[in-house]
Specification:
This protein is mainly beta and 99 residues long. The protein has one domain. Helix content is 0%, strand content 46%.
Length: 99
Amino acid sequence: MERYTDTISGEELYVVKHFNYKHYYKDREMTIYHRTDGPAVEGHRDDGSVGDKHWLVNGKLHRLDGPAVEYLYGRKEWYVNGVFIMELDKVGEVTKRME
């Protein structure tokens, strides 16, 4: 387990590498995903390129300046404080939205 200082909040986070993913946690028990200066879960492919990314704050999917989830194959999902807003497919077409 590594330590990481969030550059926006100044919080000390716990980082765990698991297979090709990095997981950022607020607590030592690793139950609350959290990061404000980037994705709290980020995947990397074997060739080093970026994979899936998930932005979480206090354990909830959350991002105000873009999608909270970006999948390797192009789908993107927007959430604010854990509430689903919308989803776009890989060409940018809305596939689901908040009702």
